[in-house]
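Good morning C.,

I know you're traveling, so I'll keep this short. The sequence:
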Amino acid sequence: MIRGLDELGRERAIAAMRALEVELFGNHAWSETSVRQELTAPGRVYVFDVAGGSPDAVGVAQSPAESSAEVSPAPIVRGFAGYWYDGEDAEIMDVGVGRAYQRRGIAKALMGELIARAKAQGARRMLLEVSVVNEPAIALYRGFGFERIGLRKRYYQPEGIDAYVMALDLEPRVVGFQSAVGTAADADVIDGGNVNRGSNHDGEHGDDKEQERQS
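The tokens, ready to paste straight into the viewer:
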């Protein structure tokens, strides 16, 4: 089940995302402070894949009588994904699925939810960077209609791996002249937005974080 940040609970989401970061990204993982800053930063939208139990079951102390009774298992956060909406474009910031739950369509479900939420917010496009050697992620994004629009040399450090910049139009593309509501020049603006936004994160988040790292 896909849950939003408020549904899951901020502290629970921080703990789960940090644990998945460590499992998946090792030395490149964000610290708990970085995760907290990311989830509370303006314009962020994060969703989580949660399996089993009720979120309220996590961290709830039980009396002896309660512990002897049958209770719902604690939910398991299997993956997460999020974007930054700047009022115009939605830029994918981070995606991760636990190794034990990969190849189950979780990343696809998370991406689908992000796209739906970005459309609902009125975003024009969704943008992302993906390692040129991450063929499964590239295939996933192409399946949603993302197209390559640029290349960032040596984007992922310290490995020095290039990144493709990919974009998905979330509103109808304007072709040629418009009626009174717009002009041909407006069409150029729709297709020619600045995608060179630098790294997805500032400060200790750094540029060495691959945000497409999911199955």
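Safe travels,
E.
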